[in-house]
Specification:
24 helices, 7-stranded parallel sheet, 5-stranded mixed sheet, Beta Polymerase, domain 3, 571 residues, 43% helix, Beta Polymerase, domain 2, DNA polymerase, domain 1
Length: 571
């Protein structure tokens, strides 16, 4: 497991204490940016520290680099320990409650002695919060709801779930007459892997009708705000949804503001200031005159920038690329010509091979690879050599039948065993068109052992693809401990493609690793790893992730015609 989440947590705790104590805003913002940078890294921060390159990470200066180094070396940070002693509260526990931040934490600590979730809940249940300055009964009720959400672990949700919810609300609101624009913004529009809340922007002639419909949606469990320009609700699923009404002439500015993350937006505002302009959610102004605001593209063009795709708006180099005219032409779903990793009922899939092929053909694919599990994965009814050879004959017959216009590729998802050997003999692997190898066991191996296992497997001349390379399951299981740089180098040397697994709970590789992989000359395959026909639809989430990783059509081998694909993987 990488140290990224651990280090980000430490930095966030420091930032919360600094804000609690009312320290300089610039120092607080520096720590907050460092948290975002470390959280989205495509490499273990410990490896970067070992090379003495922490300050090359966006937002990491000398001071924060020293804090990170101290933590990596000693397992603690002296300054943080002092903060914990000086302010004996469980600040991370309290901050995890929706609607509760450092200012509220300080207020309830100073006035009521609240130090953790338990004491805050007791104060709320006894009605003691409502009497505090700036709170009141409504805020007290909101905090109670936030405590419920925190206890149920509903702080974040997968993009796939959040997008489905957002689209449902958007569809419902679109039934109201007078709506001229409605767009899902925020981290959903940036296609973040997990989502904290949902932002929806609307322009409408009758704001009241829109807001009344929104707060009355069938899935709303509580209303935390109900106004003419902004309303907020908590759904039965625990997700918070914010709806804002924007005037037509400010809609583009609002869309830009509520899409980019804070670092992207701060960077844009600094560009505006250098041009003598003021940028906010209402527009781009020259003195009192609004020079842009109705269209999002006009905000960027007035600042001398190409329109930046929403997925890139996190200040990781996209603004500089837009300034120099070097923004990538990002991959699109329509570019995908086939799926190279899927399962049938011959292992742990739920549909027959014919049903999977029908579903793939309905997507207009040129080719489709059937790649069931192999024998070591007994829990998934993995195939041994005899069954695999029979499957190869079956696919030959299916191709010859003429029932499907696409080419059916003979594949398998082969297990990487404890020492990096594969669980299918070479002479059988040689009969396959496309061989994926993956880790499904001993996921807690130490970093060297795991790295050696994977790299040894990639040395096989029959291996074409490394499946779900870091093994993570979002919100459930962290990445393996693995030296991803060594894996990439082995893959490059052995002409092995990296998988971007499109399953919404995997999205593995992450965006940072995708950028690193392509910079190292590696190719990517976006695959659904489908176990049901309906899971073939997950390809869209793989493409979303690819765009976040700056991938172009040329970076992804399953955008290639079949002949080019096969020549690309030939060793």
């Amino acid at each position: 497991m990488t140290k990224n989440a651990e280090v980000a947590k430490v930095l966030k705790e420091i930032s919360l204490y600094l804000e609690f104590e009312g320290k300089e805003p610039f120092k607080i913002r520096a720590y907050q940016r460092a948290v975002r940078s470390i959280s989205s890294l495509g490499e273990d921060v410990a490896s970067i520290a070992e090379r003495g390159e922490l300050t090359t990470i966006a937002g990491i200066g000398k001071g924060i680099a020293e804090v990170i180094t101290d933590y990596l070396n000693d397992g603690q940070v002296t300054g943080l320990e002092e903060l914990r002693t000086r302010v004996p509260i469980k600040i991370m526990e309290l901050d995890a409650i929706p609607g509760v931040g450092p200012k509220t934490i300080k207020l309830v600590y100073d006035k009521l002695g609240v130090i953790d979730l338990e004491s805050l809940e007791a104060a709320a249940n006894e009605g003691r919060l409502a009497g505090l300055p700036g709170l009141g009964a409504k805020t007290e009720a909101q905090i109670k709801e936030g405590i419920r959400v925190a206890r149920s672990g509903l702080g974040r949700t997968l993009l796939a779930n959040a997008l489905s919810v957002a689209e449902d609300i958007k569809k419902s609101l679109n039934q109201i007459s007078g709506i001229t624009q409605i767009i899902i913004a925020g981290s959903v529009r940036r296609r973040r892997e997990t989502i904290g809340d949902i932002d929806i922007l609307v322009s409408a002639s009758d704001p009241k009708a829109v807001m009344d419909s929104f707060v009355s949606h069938r899935d709303v469990s509580s209303v935390t705000a109900h106004g003419q320009t902004k309303s907020s609700v908590r759904l039965t699923s625990g997700i918070q949804v914010d709806l804002r009404i924007l005037p037509e002439d400010s809609f583009g500015a609002g869309l830009q503001y509520f899409t980019g993350n804070i670092d992207h937006n701060v960077h844009l505002r600094s560009i505006a200031q250098k041009k003598g302009l003021l940028l906010n959610e209402y527009g781009l102004f020259k003195g009192e005159k609004k020079v842009a605001g109705g269209a999002e593209a006009d905000i960027y063009s007035t600042l001398g920038l190409k329109l930046i795709p929403p997925e890139l708006r996190e200040d990781t180099g996209e603004i500089e690329a837009a300034q120099s005219g070097n923004l990538p032409s990002l991959i699109e779903l329509k570019d995908i010509r086939g799926d190279l990793h899927s399962h049938t009922d011959q292992s742990d899939g739920k549909n027959t091979i014919e049903e999977m092929l029908d579903a793939a053909q309905a997507k207009g694919y040129d080719y489709y690879c059937v790649s069931d599990h192999t024998q070591s994965l007994t829990i998934s009814n993995g195939m041994d050599e005899a069954r695999l050879l029979k499957r190869i004959e079956e696919i030959d017959d299916l191709n010859a039948s003429g029932r499907w216009k696409m080419t059916i590729l003979k594949g398998a998802e082969v297990d990487i065993l404890s020492a990096g050997e594969l669980d299918i003999k070479d002479e059988v692997l040689a009969e396959l068109d496309f061989v994926t190898v993956s880790i499904h066991s001993r996921m807690k191996d130490d970093k060297k052992t795991m790295t050696d296992r994977v790299c040894h497997a990639l040395e096989s001349k029959y291996v074409h693809l490394l499946g779900h390379p870091t093994g993570r399951l979002l919100l459930k299981r962290p990445e393996f401990e693995i030296d991803i740089d060594a894996v990439f180098e082995s893959a490059r040397k052995n002409k092995v493609v990296m998988e971007l697994n499109a399953h919404p709970q995997r999205l593995d590789l992450n965006a940072g690793n995708l950028r690193k992989a392509t910079k190292n000359g590696l190719k990517i395959a976006i695959n659904t790893d489908a176990h049901y026909t309906t899971e073939l639809d997950n390809m869209q989430f793989g493409v979303f992730q690819a765009r976040r990783g700056w991938l172009t059509k040329n970076d992804v081998i399953n955008t290639y015609p079949l002949k080019k694909l096969m020549s690309t993987i030939t060793k």
